[in-house]
Specification:
By secondary structure, the protein is of the alpha+beta class. Helix content is 29%, strand content 18%. The chain contains 17 helices and 19 strands. The strands form four sheets. The chain has an eight-stranded antiparallel sheet with strand order 8-9-10-11-19-16-15-14, covered by helices on one side. Strands 7, 12, 13, 17 and 18 form a five-stranded antiparallel sheet that branches. A hairpin with a 4-residue loop joins strand 8 (430-435) and strand 9.
Amino acid sequence: METARQRYSLSTRDDLLSWVLDLLPDPFMCPDNIGASFRAPIRRFEWGSRPLWAVFSLVKGGVSPEEPHIKPYFDYIAKGLTPGDPNAFTDPTLKTRQIVFEQVVYGYGLLCLGDELLDRLSSVQQERLVSWLNVANKIELPWGSWYLARVLINCGLRQCGLAYDADRLAADVAAVENMYVGNGWYEDGTPFQLDTYIGSAFHLIALLLERYARSNPLVDCIERAKAFAADYRYWFDSCGRALPFGRSLTYRFAQAAFWSAAALMGERIAPAAEIKDLLCRHLSWWYDSTGRDCLSSIGYGYPGAPIREDYSSPGASFWAFRAFVVLALPQDDPFWGIEPHTFKLKQLHVENEPGVLIESGEHHAYMLSAKQYCASGLMGRYSKYGKLCYSTAFGWNASVDGTGIGNFAVDSSLALSVAGTDQFASRGRIEGYEIHDGYAYSLWGYGAVARVETWLVPVDEFRHIRIHHVESSVPLETYEGGFPVFGWSSKFDCAERNQGSIRLARNMSAPGGDDDNYGQVAGIEDILACRDEIERKLRQVGLGALVESFAGEWDGREAVAVRQNPATNIYSCEQNAVPALKTRMPATAFHLGCMVYGDPGSQN
């Protein structure tokens, strides 16, 4: 039987300890070559503070504060709490409230280390720590996981018998409770987001309080985490990759921070062997894929991948250190001796709260999304939340321009353009949605000119169906894209075309043909080329009325390969191409349908 050591690059405490020590940066050496929406002093504070999630956990687990990689962080804290020091921490204000979001780790330090942290500070530094953290209680915060940050700050102070704001703590706990929507899910932000932050922020803090606080003010933490775990395990595939859905992907393996915190709870959230499998498999994938330098840049599958937000500063990626809270378990804890066990996933899993259907297979997992959107000015929001489908293997593309379909991220999207403008947009704000056992529905619009109804139907690991009913007041040009094929070039590679269908694959004998592609194949087939198969599946999942309503009214499309620019995919820096269907329609109502195919190849 294959052991964990054979299956995973990282499977022991020593493995994780060695990697995290390699990853820890010099807390005083924040680079100044990456801008953000907050100014340089806060960027430097973030750089030095986020790694403390790992540092405090390591010390809790028995690593000496004098260890050469660890000691600089305690020096950093001491200088930050020394009034007049050039590295002294500044108080947060309404305009600089990002500081509060980073103060949370100091609340964690007080909670898990207590006197072990305080005893390394002078009386002046201790007084400054208390007064500085309490400034957070005077700041108006954005609705969402920020409130959890302040809950942890106040609980850390309270745990150590230090001054805290009991009224603010109670109010923040009540606010967090209002964000709970059921089945382990919270809504983060306005409008709602239900993504990896729910694990790495909401549940992580709740479980840390459950583990360390003498009195946890948050309610039902264990039962809610158990319910969340039952859904969240489907966000990871057999290779360990997580579904790349939503913002802050530069946090990378923070996607597994929930499993790290769940490990602290023994068997209370899920069988420890399954938790260890999910955690080790995910961290091993990142270690094998990106190695020791994976947090040294803004990026995802490679440095500079197009996933950044305006708050992505040099230290943003260090949120990933939350995934190491498990190292608070000492070497002799039973968790480290457990042999990981892989939970057998259902092929199709329905998650009503985030509004998704997840298909799990041997080669990848994909998510059909029907509910969430981002109405703010978030960079790349159409790619991060607006795709119709998200795959752990194919990732997604980001647009480099709205002009020209080659510059627009058409993958996993229905791209619409007022005819003659060459300006494209895809699904943004969602006006209505439904999640069923066999399909997902969304209602959305293209500005004031078009109304779109979309039905998404999973078929198997490799295929899903899309149906669209479009009503437009102006002539439209439309492109519908499948999955991107990394590195595909019309000069060297294969395009299998038939009437209304196209399938793209790399010529693996071409120079560099297997560098980052692994034998991917992606295709798309118009409904008129496979009508019987699609209509049979629609009837099977309860959409027979749709078939009858649209009978004889399907509009056919031309199959094309749309070339996409280098460094537009989150996994591959190479150019890629998307199999697509295009058509031009007059101002009218019309119906579109297709079968999308994607085989990731040998990536696992």
